From TrEMBL:
The lineage of its organism: Eukaryota, Fungi, Dikarya, Basidiomycota, Agaricomycotina. It is found in: Membrane. The chain crosses the membrane at residues 12-29, 36-55, 114-135, 164-185, 206-229, 274-292. GO terms for molecular function: mating-type alpha-factor pheromone receptor activity. Keywords: G-protein coupled receptor, Membrane, Pheromone response, Receptor, Transducer, Transmembrane, Transmembrane helix. It is a multi-pass membrane protein. GO terms for biological process: pheromone-dependent signal transduction involved in conjugation with cellular fusion. The keyword Transmembrane applies. Its main location: membrane. This is STE3-domain-containing protein. It comes from Gloeophyllum trabeum (strain ATCC 11539 / FP-39264 / Madison 617) (Brown rot fungus). Residues 381-405 are annotated as: Disordered.
Length: 446
């Protein structure tokens, strides 16, 4: 039962609902889904309102913030009809789509559709806030663990001005929902052809919107009837005498401890069900739209963005985060020595097998180290090409290795032979220190 849930649990769920319901807001706003955006906006505002109240007035009923309570009570009154009004906007739009009519074709028609949705989703709640002041008996009430609540004087004008509005909106929304289902069944083939060119409203999103609005209607009508029933049977309906009588001592604030309102089962059920209704709406919305294809696409983009900010880059951003190949960005390697040269980092993915220290030179000639001048070396090479090579080949690695088939085999003359210890080692298994040769006078690199 919701009446047995601790207040701290409600605070946590109300804040989570506030965050979750706003996650799909951006891409629904891009698609001009005004009714859906209104639903998310009002649900998020009321979840945040309930969260703040449950935290500030946890285990107390002190009037800490009277101005905030004035604002909070207005939000409470507006959201009681705003969520159902947003569902009405959704069902109305789905009905026009089910008739195989162009929902929005030109910019003018888009603007007209948005204005009608705003009139329903914003106009009705603000009008409800204004009209409820007529039957507002005093400023507000503070219930321990609940927070600020508006007080509506239980007189007969309160029903047409305030209490019946949620039921009336839910019933009109139910009519639109039934008509859209009927039209869809009758014109299923035309409906599929109509939705195919509209990228902003796929068939999957259409059915999810229909399911969301249907759940709101099925939950809103019984809850509205139950609220009216409790007000009529549990509290006597007072006659309307005058404006002055209704607003007598208007600045009064009733502060009700939890032990008192929890001792009344009817009042406890009314308070708990009304505040949990909004939180449940937030989780229902996220269940329908938080795991859709467009949601997963935006989660993937966020994942890629965060990974890049952390220094990673994706080989394929079109794949799912679990299947992407990630690697760190290569940077330059600073070789600090006499010349202080900064070389680019070369990643060799095909590592050669480890060998003994004496055989740790490359078997391919990347750079040749020769002693003396180039002409004498080439003359000696041309005259002794038939003589087998008997010495070691000294190499230095370059950033790009030649293909084995293209490797150049050069034979050194005997008079240009250098000792192994004079050549720097480059493999991982080479010794850290190398003995310099006293016989080297000049070194030319070609």
């Amino acid at each position: 039962m919701l009446t047995d849930v601790p207040n701290s649990v409600f605070s946590a769920f109300s804040f989570i609902g506030f965050v979750l319901v706003l996650i799909p807001f951006y891409w629904h706003l891009e698609a001009w889904n005004t009714g859906t955006c209104l639903y998310m906006g009002w649900t998020a505002i009321q979840c945040l309102n309930l969260f703040i109240n449950s935290v500030v007035w946890n285990n107390n009923a002190i009037n800490w913030a009277p101005v905030w309570c004035d604002i909070s009570s207005r939000i409470y009154i507006g959201s009681s009809v705003a969520i159902l009004a947003a569902s009405l906007c959704i069902n109305r739009r789905l009905y026009h789509i089910s008739k195989v009519e162009a929902v929005v074709v030109t910019r003018q028609e888009k603007r007209r559709g948005v204005m009608i949705d705003l009139a329903i989703g914003l106009g009705i709640p603000f009008l409800q806030m204004i009209l409820s002041y007529i039957v507002q008996g005093h400023r507000f009430d503070i219930f321990e663990d609940i927070g600020c609540e508006p007080f509506i004087y239980n007189t007969w004008p309160a029903y047409p001005l305030s209490k019946v509005w949620p039921l009336a909106i839910a019933m009109v929304s139910a009519v639109y929902s039934a008509l859209s289902i009927r039209q869809f069944v009758k014109r299923k083939t035309e409906f599929s052809k109509f939705l195919s060119p509209h990228t902003n409203l796929t068939s999957s999103r259409y059915f999810r919107l229909m399911a969301l609005a249907g759940v709101e209607v099925l939950c809103g009508i019984p809850l509205s009837i139950y609220t009216i029933y409790l007000n009529v049977t549990s509290f006597p309906v007072q006659p309307w005498i005058s404006w002055e009588d209704t607003h007598f001592n208007f600045s009064k604030v009733d502060q009700v401890p939890a032990v008192i309102w929890r001792s009344n089962p009817v009042l406890q059920a009314s308070l708990e069900s009304s505040r949990w209704f909004t939180v449940i709406c937030a989780f229902i919305f996220f269940a329908f739209f938080g795991f859709a294809d467009e949601a997963l696409k935006h989660y993937r983009r966020l994942y890629v963005f965060v990974a890049k900010c952390l220094g990673y880059e994706s080989v394929s951003e079109s794949k799912a985060p679990g299947s992407s190949v990630w690697k760190t960005k290569p940077g330059p390697v600073n070789v600090r020595g006499p010349l202080n040269i900064t070389l680019p980092l070369h990643l060799n993915t095909h590592r050669r097998p480890q060998r003994d220290s004496d055989l740790s030179f490359s078997d391919r000639l990347d750079s040749v180290i020769i002693l003396g001048d180039i002409d004498s070396f080439m003359d000696g090479h041309e005259s002794k090409t038939d003589r087998p090579f008997s010495g070691q080949r000294a190499v230095m690695p370059s950033s790009a290795e030649p293909h084995p088939s293209e490797a150049l085999e050069l034979q050194w003359p005997d008079d240009h032979f250098i000792h192994v210890s004079s050549v720097p080692r480059h493999d991982l298994d080479a010794p850290l220190s190398v003995r310099p040769s006293p016989h080297i006078s000049t070194i030319d690199i070609v």
